[in-house]
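Input.
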Amino acid sequence: MRSIWVGERVRLRAREPADWEVFHAFDEDSEAVRDGWRLQPPRSAARAQKAAEEAAGEEPDLDRFDLVIAELGSGAPVGAINTHQIDRDHGTFAYGLSVGRPHRRNGYASEAVVLVLRYMFFERRFQKAEAWVYGSNEPSLALHRRMGFVEEGRRRRSHYHAGRYDDEVLFGMTIEEFTERYA
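Output.
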């Protein structure tokens, strides 16, 4: 018997208090943080540890969750994936993804996305996944195109970081597109 949360390279799992050090180190990479959301002032190790303990104690939600992407062999955290913007009326959701710089280009991101989409489409009855990617984040743009996501729109100059304005590119994938490619 195999878990739907396990792929060939990664296992998606809940956050554990011990994960704090890895994610605290990821937060030190300002360029990578900017690619995913927004840069914030440094957080103390004590606050990062407390936040990890609080996150580990939260009861998981069936539709909205934040999971660790762990390397299958070692079990070490390599990134995180979350779901948000849940719209049950229309059957849509969005997700966010980050993989620490030392772990990129190993197939972890694409496999984590497939695992989450498979769960959301076939267990939770959603019909469409969306992802917003900053226009300057070339690796993420390439990932979503390679995975078969359709570019659906662009919000021009909607995100400010590193002294400049950046576009947000909306990607979408329907359950039919996913099934044709991954099921």
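The helical segments are 20-26, 30-36, 45-57, 108-122, 138-146, 175-182.
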